[in-house]
Design brief:
The complex is a heterodimer of chains A (598) and B (166).
Chain A (H helix, E strand, L loop, with lengths): L3 H30 L3 H7 L2 H12 L2 H14 L5 H24 L4 H9 L2 H34 L3 H18 L6 H27 L3 H5 L13 E3 L5 E5 L3 E9 L2 E9 L2 E5 L4 E4 L7 E2 L6 H5 L8 H15 L4 H7 L5 H32 L3 H4 L5 H10 L3 H37 L4 H21 L5 H25 L5 H24 L7 H5 L2 H18 L8 H9 L11 H5 L2 H6 L1 H4 L6
Antiparallel strand pairs in A: 1-6, 2-5, 2-7, 3-4, 3-6
Helix pairs in contact in A: 1-9, 1-17, 3-9, 3-13, 3-14, 4-7, 4-14, 4-19, 5-12, 5-14, 5-19, 5-23, 6-7, 6-19, 7-8, 7-17, 7-18, 7-19, 7-20, 8-17, 8-18, 9-14, 9-16, 9-17, 12-19, 12-22, 14-16, 16-17, 17-18, 19-20, 19-22, 20-22
Chain B lengths: L10 H23 L16 H8 L6 H12 L1 H39 L7 E2 L2 E2 H37 L1
Antiparallel strand pairs in B: 1-2
Helix pairs in contact in B: 1-2, 1-3, 4-5
Classes of the chains: A alpha+beta (598), B mainly alpha (166).
């Protein structure tokens, strides 16, 4: 998909998606122009909001990352989409309706409503920012990968494009992440992935059955044609069957070429080296991937200590979704607790439908673009698949352009939601000032993930997002679950739990994100949720018990408000803001910046 | 509770007006006082008389009729506490039961394939069993869990609301 025609197709598809998005935004603005945002929000049905939540949630990790991980890790990688979806089951069972009834718009708001402590609010604010930053890095990385796959341009250009588009959106409000725009985003992303995958599956059905059967073989996949691979980073490749490699590398200023036989074992390849493989050769696979196809096809076939890593991942994803800042704000659009529940049910269905396609494209990738396993750039599998399967003609270009444009829609919508969330708490709780504060906050929200993305980008997209989930699960999940269901929670206990659980998760995750962990500890460090989540719960309960004199005196009143059926009319929220009451404004910090996401 | 039975159709409007007046007074006081911080902690604004009017001001579709009942309930702290405990407990049991089912189903998958690796090679409808489970079957399972939760919790809330209203 390289060269200029691919670029034109991609740009054409991107312009089309941008036009649809802007039109939907205008339509949405027209719908709300006659009434204030309160009434407008009540006309938004569960169906729209469910699509909006899904649209904002499906980020680079879902659009590109899962297929890449399936290509590399096989069936074990399916735990990512399963966990991304299961998180909404936990959210539904424990959080959705009570959170909606609390009237809180963000997690710091919830902490404020439930425990009324300024210090706890600040700690929550800090973690919202950290989680938002961790989640933004893969979005920028994904943009870089997409631009590189289409044009061969360096990765920072893609990241810069996303930063500019999102900042422009936020400043002008053209594509504000109002519900209707985000709802359209879901259908755009689904279409941009589903149509190409359908076509490719049909194409694949007409191919030689021997190719299909090769997936069961006790051997690595083979190169479909002669291929040159230039790994982006230093990589360690695993080989199980001897393979002839042409190695071209720059040494002391001049190019050296030689052909060597790699025996079974590990082979180090440094950055900038080009490897040549003839058609039919067995594909060497980057470390931690499933080397043999038979291992790829069966569970627990790749990586070290796969059982522990799998369980830790399940914990992080199952419990982390409820702590994501850009997801919780969305629930505020539902009129009441029951609507929040119905919305979540629909979200589960929408995500389930979407995730069929990353799985299918990961499966096809193993057959048609196995060379990515050698280069370590498995995240671009979906982008390169149409061209690899359909050849360089216009069908491949068209479908490839559609996928690339859909991927960009994914980065832009997820990044908009995240930047608005992070900038919202930055401007409300950290930086002084009103709208100007919000603009400065937008830049501040970008700075850290951008720097991080430029400094280190060795992690797979889905794994990078998984780290954000691990921190969210270790900090906000206990706060929400205990805050909603346990009357004994105190502000000191909550703060201690967040600091211990979230702090340890962060400490474990940062070296993994920077790619400097020792191999032995990798499963624990790269996915620490299995240990940090129980620890956070335990700390919160023990410290709360010790400080039981700090339980809010009106705890029953608050719990009644969170759990009372909607028709009793006990919940309390935005009407206060409208009336200009002080506590109402405090509960809606983002309104002060004029950037509520309605 | 029984005092409500007299005239539920007319009382709410009186309550609404009074609430608006009280809210105005509260805001006036806040403006005058200046130090009426919303962040003043559990002993601050939330426990003051302001609470009840906000309920009325929420203007929810079907909320008016029961406002007085609940307001009465909230005043009788003992009754309120028992009520909340019961409400939270019933809903918690439902949530935790469905969560346990979900977690058990998910958690049993990796360990089953680890203990009985041959299960991983079974082919059904052209797909390997683990791919079928994780790629397709779990999603309808999630939807069924969520649907059954919504149905049960809606019924339980209905019962609770009926109980409060009577």
């Amino acid at each position: 998909m390289r060269g200029s025609p691919a670029l034109y197709f991609t740009i054409g598809a991107m312009v089309g998606i941008a036009a649809v998005t802007i039109l939907s935004g205008l339509y949405g603005a027209k719908m709300r122009s006659t009434s204030n945002f309160l009434v407008a929000s009540r006309t938004v049905g569960s169906r729209w909001n469910a699509a909006a939540i899904s649209g904002e949630y499906l980020s680079a990790a879902s659009f590109l990352g899962i297929a890449g991980l399936v290509l590399k890790g096989g069936v074990d990688a399916l735990w990512y989409p399963v966990g991304f979806t299961a998180g909404y089951v936990a959210l539904l069972l424990f959080v959705a309706a009570p959170l909606r009834r609390s009237g809180a718009y963000t997690l710091p708001d919830f902490a404020d409503v439930r425990l009324g402590s300024v210090r706890l609010r600040r700690i929550c604010t800090a973690f919202v920012i950290i989680i938002g930053w961790l989640y933004l890095v893969p979005q920028l990385q994904g943009a870089g990968i997409t631009v590189r796959a289409v044009t061969d341009a360096p990765e920072w250009i893609g990241a810069a494009v996303v930063v500019v588009i999102v900042t422009f959106n936020i400043y002008t409000g053209w594509m504000r992440s109002i519900t209707i725009v985000q709802a359209f985003q879901y259908w755009i992303k689904l279409t941009a992935l589903a149509i190409p995958v359908f076509v490719l599956l049909l194409h694949n059905a007409g191919q030689d059955p021997g190719l299909q059967n090769s997936l069961g073989a006790r051997a690595p996949p083979t190169f479909p044609q002669a291929t040159d691979v230039t790994p982006k980073h230093n990589v360690v490749l695993e080989v199980t069957q001897p393979v002839m490699v042409g190695v071209a590398s720059m040494r002391d200023g001049h190019l050296t070429k030689q052909t060597v036989l790699w025996g079974p074992g590990e082979h180090q390849v440094s950055q900038g080296t080009t490897l040549h493989f003839d058609a039919g050769n067995r594909v060497p696979v980057v470390r931690d991937g499933a080397v043999n196809n038979a291992d790829w096809l069966r569970p627990l076939g790749a990586g070290r200590n796969p059982l522990l890593a799998t369980y830790s991942l399940i914990v992080a994803l199952l419990l982390g979704t409820m702590g994501l800042p850009h997801v919780l704000g969305r629930y505020y659009t539902d009129p009441d607790g029951m609507a929040a529940r119905r919305t979540t049910l629909l979200v589960l269905a929408l995500l389930g439908v979407f995730y069929l396609f990353p799985m299918a494209s990961g499966w096809l990738s193993r057959l048609y673009v196995p060379q990515l396993l050698t280069g370590g750039n498995t995240d671009s599998a979906v982008l390169l698949l149409p061209n690899a399967m359909l050849g360089g003609g216009w069908p491949g270009l068209l479908l490839g352009g559609l996928i690339a444009a859909g991927a960009f829609a994914a980065f832009v919508s997820a990044a908009t939601g995240l930047v608005v969330s992070v900038a919202g708490v930055l401007s409300a709780d950290v930086l002084p000032g009103r709208l100007r504060g919000f603009r400065a906050a937008t830049l501040a929200a970008w700075s850290v993930p951008l720097a991080f993305m430029l400094a280190v980008s060795s992690l797979d997209l889905a794994q990078g997002v998984g780290l954000a989930f691990a921190v969210a699960a270790s900090s906000f999940c206990p706060l929400l679950v205990l805050g909603i269901w346990w009357r004994g929670l105190t502000d000191v206990g909550a703060a201690a739990g967040i600091l211990v659980g979230g702090g340890l998760a962060l400490a474990a995750v940062l070296p993994a994100a920077a790619g400097v962990v020792s191999a032995q500890w990798q499963p624990v460090l790269a996915q620490p949720a299995l240990f940090t989540v129980p620890l956070a719960f335990l700390t919160m309960i023990v410290v709360s018990r010790r400080t039981s004199d700090r339980v809010p005196v009106d705890v029953y009143r608050i719990l009644l408000r969170l759990h009372a059926p909607d028709r009793l009319g006990l919940s309390e929220d935005r009407d206060l803001g409208q009336l200009g009451s002080l506590s109402g404004m405090a509960a809606l910090p983002r309104m002060r910046g004029g950037r509520h996401r309605r | 509770m029984s005092s409500d039975a007299a005239g539920p159709e007319h009382d709410p409007w009186a309550a609404l007006e009074q609430a608006a007046r009280e809210q105005q007074a509260l805001e006036q006081a806040a403006r005058d006082g200046g130090s009426h911080s919303p962040l003043s902690g559990p002993s601050g604004s939330r426990t003051k008389a302001g609470k009840r009017e906000r309920i009325v001001l929420a203007r929810r579709r079907s909320s008016r009729r029961v406002v007085r009942t609940l307001a009465d309930l909230e005043d009788q702290t003992g009754v309120g506490e028992v009520l909340v405990r019961q409400l939270v407990q019933v809903q918690w049991k439902l949530s935790i039961r469905l969560m346990l089912i979900t977690v058990l189903v998910l958690a049993s998958i990796p360990v089953t394939f680890w203990l009985v690796p041959s299960l991983g090679t079974i082919t059904i409808l052209g797909m390997r069993l683990p791919w079928l489970l994780l790629g397709l079957a779990v999603y309808p399972f999630f939807v069924v869990v969520a649907w059954s939760y919504n149905r049960s919790v809606e019924r339980k809330e209905q019962d609770f609301a009926d109980m409060v209203e009577n």
